[in-house]
Design a protein that fits this description.
It is built from six helices and 16 strands. By secondary structure, the protein is of the alpha/beta class. The strands form four sheets. A seven-stranded mixed beta sheet has the order 1-16-15-7-4-2-3, sandwiched between helices.
Length: about 270
């Protein structure tokens, strides 16, 4: 993945490249994440309702928004966090918060992604927050995705890492087996996500903020039609939501060792 993939290539319709900034130094992955996050915050304007993403990249955006609020460069921002972790970070930084019940339309969401394919389809949720992320980002007028170049893949699941599916705990192994069977032709292995106890005790199923479990799909090959795959997954009664975010990203910001590129889906 990554090195042979042209981040400006599109599978079908190429989004416009609206900005590209050269970087002159050799940067760490964490520094690239911060640069992408800061670039995304340039889209934030005073008075906006902002979806606050979850994860190692999004945390930099949340911190930057707080910094600009303290400096008086942003005012009257309302944040809607996509996880309890982000909620705690935003509270600690003094960002005013609300929820979708009070603000059903979100002006802008900023979040990272675990994978981005050439058509700007995403894999999200390896941190376990996919349901809340999809609810908030799906309610957003604009969804800015921030990644470093290691997250670019040729197809969804192409990193060989997990495509998460949130499932109810009841008969979760039954649901896991159904999901594995569904994508058998793609060489799928479905595994219930486990978490080691805090004191190094026995592993137990990882639990999401919503009290559900996560089944991780590991694919050897392209699963094909993503819309068809999405519908097939959601037809299983034990499935709550999956981590494929199809057609949702409006803007992608990619930070790489040779520059920062901003791509707009709609040109």
């Amino acid at each position: 993945m990554g090195s042979a993939f042209d981040p400006l290539a599109m599978a079908t319709e190429e989004p416009a490249v609206v900005n590209s900034t050269p970087l002159l130094s050799n940067l760490t992955q964490e520094e690239l994440k911060r640069i992408a996050a800061y670039k995304a915050v340039e889209f934030v304007e005073s008075g906006m309702v902002i979806g606050l993403g979850t994860g190692s990249t999004a945390k930099h955006a949340v911190a930057r928004i707080s910094e600009l609020l303290r400096e008086g460069k942003l005012k009257d921002i309302i944040g809607i966090p996509t996880s309890t972790t982000t909620h705690e970070q935003a509270v600690s930084l003094g960002i005013p918060l609300s929820d979708l019940d009070s603000h059903p339309v979100v002006d802008l969401s900023i979040d990272g992604a675990d994978e981005v394919d050439p058509a700007l389809n995403l894999v999200k949720g390896r941190g376990g927050s996919l349901l809340r992320e999809k609810m908030i980002e799906g309610a957003s007028k604009k969804f800015v995705v921030i990644v470093d170049e290691s997250k670019l893949v040729k197809y969804v699941g192409g990193s060989g890492l997990a495509v998460p599916v949130e499932v109810v705990p009841f008969c979760c192994d039954f649901t896991r087996g159904k999901l594995e069977e569904l994508f058998r032709e793609a060489g799928c292995k479905a595994k219930l996500r486990m978490k080691i106890g805090s004191n190094g005790g026995d592993a137990a199923p990882a639990v999401t903020d919503n009290g559900n479990y996560v089944v991780d799909l590991y694919l050897e090959r392209d699963m094909g039609d993503l819309e068809a795959a999405s519908k097939a997954i959601l037809r299983f009664p034990g499935v709550v939501e999956h981590g494929m975010f199809l057609g949702m990203a409006t803007t992608l910001i990619v930070a790489g060792k040779f520059g920062v590129t901003v791509r707009d889906r709609f040109g």
